[in-house]
Amino acid sequence: MKKALLFTFILVFATINGQASASQYKQQSKSQQNAAMIKFGPQLGNNVSSRRNGVYFEYKFQEALGIQSGLLYFKDMYLLTETDDIQSIIKGKNNKTDLWHVVTPQYITLPIILRSYPGAARQFCLFAGMEAGYLIGGQRLTGDANTNFEKLRKKIIQGESIKKTELKDIKDGVRKMTLSMVVGFDYEFNFGLLLGFRYTKGLVDVIKTKSSALNWTLQPTLAYNFGKFL
Predict the structure, then answer these.
(1) How far apart are CA 103 and CA 100, in angstroms?
(2) Which tens digits make up the pLDDT trace of 196-229?
């Protein structure tokens, strides 16, 4: 919570600072200003344990402040254990009696994100917001001390064919609706490419258990702004 409050303070400060540097924007033509108010296009955000891909749409209701939404497919990985020593399983040092489960639920998510653009060029952005998700499917994999967790994690993310159990067998343990906090930053190049980082933290537990890990994501993001062609 302290991190969220700190980021919100930085976001507000950056917005106020950005409003004081508007001379370059005011020199643009009316059509250029209108085009700069709208952004849309594909968005990708993948790391070693999750995928978040889809499309986004943004409208800048002020010169240095915009609101973004979209529709994203989100697949994440959660480690459930029957022991409190989660790290021992990740490192392959668990006892033979310890079982673990990798659950990979898949969601369609709808983000609502406030974006601030400090500086006159309006290319760097700080953002924060919320994201709601709805469960559309998923799978479960069970392992023990003889199963290498790291190798199976790579196979799951790479989409390799391995023996899994359908998520419907444990549907009572996975929430259909999720709500997450999102913070991050990105930079838009003159030709429309956006690069950045995004941190997502669930505000409710996706898996209804106390013995879980890998329940947050830090992802590099890649997107393109087709609004450049308007």
Answers:
(1) 10
(2) 999 998 888 787 665 555 567 889 999 999 988 8
Q: Where do the domains of the chain lie, and which CATH numbers do they carry?
A: 2-229 (2.40.160)
Q: Are the CB atoms for 178 and 107 separated by under 8 Å?
A: yes
Q: Which residues contact 128 (CB under 8 A, 6 or more apart)?
A: 4, 7, 8, 11, 113, 114, 181, 182, 183, 184
Q: What is the DSSP string of 25-37?
A: HHTS-HHHHHHHT
In whole angstroms, give the CA distance from residue 5 to residue 63. Answer: 24
Torsion angle (degrees, nearest 10) of CA 9, 14, 17, 21: -170
The conformation of residue 66, written as its DSSP 8-state character, comes to: E
Two tokens, residue 84: 């409190």
Q: pLDDT tens digits, residue range 56-89?
A: 999 998 888 999 999 999 988 777 665 555 455 4
71-90 burial, b if ≥16 CB within 10 A, otherwise e? ebebbbbbbbbeeeebebbb
